[in-house]
């Protein structure tokens, strides 16, 4: 089974990738901000009826986490935008071919080959597949640029499940036969 497609990796796809890394890294930090928000509201609502106090505490927790997440989103998107501007590049075409032998990617005439055992992991999000070369670097397969996102996503899941160990896969679709 072979999958071949050219993807245009622009600011949006790059921002989405780095944002997924940042939010994943800050998961526990966001929980901490939620706890701080809940504690602050709980302290300031002492003496109120229990149901009202519980509801306000929950709102405080949500606000604490949402404000922290918003700051992360805005700062990450801005940082990526600045880096792309300084690099003088708005977008690039990533020619991608995935077969039983591995992943072959060509960008600006430079070819890279990666056998599946050397891929760190494959992660699927709502918007893309990320084929990680390292913790901070991945090839991006944006679903919005696929002709048939649902069908192609399922084809990629099947392919990855047959050639990559389960522990290195983070796929969203149904599991099906391994």
Could you name the key traits of this structure?
alpha+beta, 26% strand, four-stranded antiparallel sheet, 178 residues, single chain, 48% helix, four-stranded mixed sheet
Could you walk me through the main structural features you see in this protein, from its secondary elements to its overall organization?
The protein is an alpha+beta fold and 178 residues long. 48% of the residues lie in helices and 26% in strands. A 4-stranded antiparallel beta sheet has the order 1-2-3-4. A 4-stranded mixed beta sheet has the order 7-6-5-8, sandwiched between helices. It is elongated, with a radius of gyration of 21 Å. The protein starts with a strand and ends in an 8-residue tail after the last strand. The model has no long low-confidence stretch (mean pLDDT 92).
Q: How do the helices and strands line up, and which of them pair or pack?
A:
Layout: E1 3-10, H1 11-25, H2 27-44, H3 50-87, E2 91-99, E3 102-107, E4 110-114, E5 121-124, E6 128-134, E7 137-142, H4 149-163, E8 169-170
Parallel strand pairs: 5-8
Antiparallel strand pairs: 1-2, 2-3, 3-4, 5-6, 6-7
Helix pairs in contact: 1-3, 2-3
Major sheet details: 4 strands, antiparallel
Radius of gyration: 21 Å
Number of helices: 4
The end-to-end span amounts to 16 Å
The coarse overall form would be elongated
In round numbers, the mean pLDDT is 92
Largest beta sheet: strand ordering? 1-2-3-4
Strand residues, percent: 25-35%
Short characterization:
By secondary structure, the protein is an alpha+beta fold. 48% of the residues lie in helices and 26% in strands.
